Amino acid sequence: MLQLYPKIKPNKEYKFKVDDIHEIYVAEYGTETGIPVICCHGGPGGETIRSEVRLFDPEFYRIIAFDQRGCGKSTPYNCVKNNNTQLLISDIELIRNKLDIEKWIVAGGGWGSTLALLYSEAHPDVVARMLLWSICLLRKRDLNWIYVDGANRFFPEHWRKLGKALTKDERKSDRDMLEIFYDKLLGKDDFARINVAKAWSYWESHCATLHLNNDVVHYFREPHIALNLALMSCHYFVNNVFIKENQILDDIEKIAKIPAKIIHGRYDMLSPLENADMLHRKLPFSELQIIREAGHAFVEAGIIDALVRSTREILRELGYNDLTIL
Fold first, then answer.
1. What is the 3-state secondary structure (H, E, C) of 71-103?
2. What is the pLDDT of residues 81-120, one digit of tens each?
3. Looking at the predicted structure, is the pLDDT value of residue 304 above 70?
4. What one-character-per-residue DSSP string does 242-270 give?
5. Which of 148, 157, 166, 265 is most buried, taking the most CB atoms under 10 A from its CB?
6. Partners of 104 in the beta sheet?
7. CA-based angle 180:186:191, to the nearest 5?
8. For the ranges 17-31, 174-188, 258-272, which has the lowest average pLDDT?
9. Average pLDDT, stretch 125-146?
């Protein structure tokens, strides 16, 4: 199986002020004259995983990573004010303009695939290709699968542990569980917030991989990571990701001519394979690779192998080192 490219440090780092509150962190890796690619990290509430930039050969790609509003090195951290999908899309377009890029490849997995697709539909003329994995369409049915009835049937013991973060009255309540968690995460009791956030992250981390990956579990349960993942995810999910129901598929004609490589684990329990299959069938210039022994997480060996192969295939499709083709 192919592995990630060696670790590299950013060539340039920026802080772009996007409104009166937020500054977003942006980093460039690889070759300044290379094929530009923007990486959208997962979450909501994650951060740029530095290994994601290692999917691309730094000799041929100009790799751009950024931390979304309220995440990672962007400031202020853990801030939901002025934080929604449309603003994230505008931030990506601001990055493109600031870095003077005419067209680029848009890449992302999980929530990053959602954002990559929505950005591409908003700005199809500047997207040369899409590289997407662990596809999340984030319709109501997809959110219900994770937080109402679906994944809980495969992980009942972890689901019960998530429920223990709620009081008996809250568990019996008719209120949406996402709303209850969101209220708790916005509360002023820091100890209670961390407790709820860790329960949230415990649930997601145990659903994320085909086989238990302790590195993933430990990363998700780091207090600042857990709190941001839980808060941002609830913020976006209680607001239906700030998009119309089924918006990605309803607007798919806008990106129908863009070549896309789609990678998805067959046993993805956070975003069932149906998401990737439906997307593939509506994109005539897409290729779908179903990874037999993989779940949702980027760290799955089969997903990394397929992604690195895909970035190499893109080079071949573009004429290897003919970097003027975009």
1. CCCCECCCCCCCCCHHHHHHHHHHHHHHCCCCC
2. 999 999 999 999 999 999 999 999 999 999 999 999 999 9
3. yes
4. GS-TTHHHHTGGGGTTS-EEEEEETT-SS
5. 265
6. 127
7. 95
8. 174-188
9. 97
Residue 183 has pLDDT above 60, yes or no: yes
Six token digits for residue 49: 């995983």
Boundaries of every domain in the chain: 12-141+241-317, 145-240
Three-state secondary-structure class, residue 290: strand
Read off the tokens for 23.
């500054």
Q: What end-to-end distance do the CA atoms of the chain give, in Å? A: 29
DSSP code, position 5: P
Q: What tokens appear for 310 in the block?
A: 């895909």
H helix or E strand, kind and range, residue 135? strand 127-135
Radius of gyration of the CA atoms of the chain, in A: 19
Res. 239: pLDDT tops 80:
yes
Q: What angle do CA 118, 286, 41 make, to 5 degrees?
A: 40
Question: Can you give the pLDDT at residue 172?
Answer: 83
CATH number of 12-141+241-317: 3.40.50.1820
Write out pLDDT tens, residues 9-28. 999 999 999 999 999 999 99
